[in-house]
Amino acid sequence: MSVIHLRAISKEFGRVVAVDNVDMEVKDGEFMTILGPSGSGKTTILSMIAGFEAPTRGTIEIGNIDVTNDPPHKRDVGLVFQSYALFPHLTVFNNVAFPLKVRKVPKSEIEMKVNKVLELVRLEKFGNRKPNELSGGQQQRVALARAFVFEPSILLLDEPLAALDRKLRQQVQVEIKELQRSLGITTITVTHDQEEALTMSDRMLILNNGKIEQLGTPEELYSKPKSRFVADFLGMANFFDGIIESSNGNVYLTVKNGNKIELDEQYESSSGQYVSLLVRPEQFKMATPDAEKGHSGKIISSVYLGNEYRYQVESELGTKVIMTEAGNECRWRIGDNITFTWDERDQRVLFK
Ligand SMILES: Nc1ncnc2c1ncn2[C@@H]1O[C@H](COP(=O)(O)OP(=O)(O)O)[C@@H](O)[C@H]1O
Ligand SMILES: [Mg+2]
Q1: 87: Cβ below 6 Å to ligand 1?
Q2: What distance in Å separates the CA atoms of residue 118 and residue 90, rounded to the nearest whole number?
Q3: Which residues keep their CB under 5 angstroms from ion ligand 2?
């Protein structure tokens, strides 16, 4: 069952096309993440789902009901927007109670619900404090509690963790994910943080200039990106640019300096096309120069990252290539000559 359904949604601000013909379905209980560069339309999409902005074209359905023209309070949506701050003059308790008061919930019920949700975010001892007496992470949890308290079926989070330092961000991420799963809340979150997106999402949507570049599971987007934009946006990517050529049933990518990379036969019909070949850093197999097969290269830098080594390699393919090896053993020194290969199944031909 899809809980949120955007049908051909566009939003224009004067001449700016903020969102361009977006179709998106989010299923019941799903955790969807929207990723994209600044200005790509992420906040505008959430604002339209919440009802703060009306789409220029298209319709929005929540639970199979057209809510396109409904005001925000008629939608069953909880929000944590970066700009949607806590009320500084209210205690934590009253901040969290606010959405219930607005909805005219009886006082005894408010007390019970607020205490329950404060316990959930582990702030039960902080009800009497003011926001400025809390750490950044605690304030974020109050904002979450305020969004959770009226038990919305949908939760929208617009970069709620951007202001937190890395360690705290990771903690709060885990908390949000656990709450979301245990309460079964359909969640759409916007983030800049790739790692956060990959670890938390059931599915992800990559936006570029108001348009969907790709929508899929984290695995699909990482290992089968449809475009160079998606490949580059998610994780580290090496691209070998060249032209597809074929002779005697063999198909190659010929790079600028004339060197060749073997391609699958299925690309024969694309001969003559300029493409980029994607190979992720962890997919290379590095060997000594006397190896029978592979491309040659020379190590030009080496960095230890705690659980892997990352090497930069000057390669015969004409570009500098990033390669990583997991583990704590530094196998290569700067200046070493190497041979490198990768499994043909791990490379991806990208046409745009
Ligand atoms: N209220 C507004 N008035 C005019 N332009 C806007 C408004 N809100 C957003 N925009 C423009 O729409 C585009 C998308 O903005 P936004 O959705 O905030 O992007 P993101 O959240 O991905 O950074 C940007 O070009 C932005 O300048
Ligand atoms: Mg934004």
Answers
A1: no
A2: 15
A3: 42-43
In DSSP terms, 61 is beta-bridged to 5, 66
What letter represents residue 98's amino acid? Answer: F
Last residue of a domain, one of 190, 210, 232: 232
Say yes or no: 247 and 166 in one domain. no
| Chain segment 63-120, per-residue pLDDT in tens | 999 999 999 878 888 888 766 679 999 999 999 999 899 889 999 999 999 999 898 8
Same domain, yes or no: 299 and 209: no
Domain extent at residue 276: 236-350
Rg (C-alpha) for the chain, rounded Å, is 25
Ligand 1 centroid from CA 41, angstroms:
6
149 and 161 part of one domain: yes
The per-residue DSSP string of 262-279 comes to EE-GGGGGGTT-EEEEEE
Per 3-state DSSP, what percentage of the chain is helix, strand, and coil (rounded to 5)? 30, 35, 35
| Backbone φ, ψ for residue 106 (5° rounding) | -60, 150
Residue of the nearest CA to atom 6 in ligand 1? 13
- Number of domains observed in the structure of the chain: 2
Residue with CA nearest ligand 1 atom 12: 18
Ligand 1 near 18 CB (within 6 A): yes
Residue nearest (by alpha carbon) to ligand 1 atom 1? 13
Contact by Cβ (8 Å): 268, 251: yes
- The residue whose CB lies within 8 Å of the most ligand 1 atoms, and thus the one to mutate among 16, 35, 211, is 16
Low-confidence ranges of the chain (pLDDT < 50): none
Note whether 32 and 64 are same-domain residues: yes
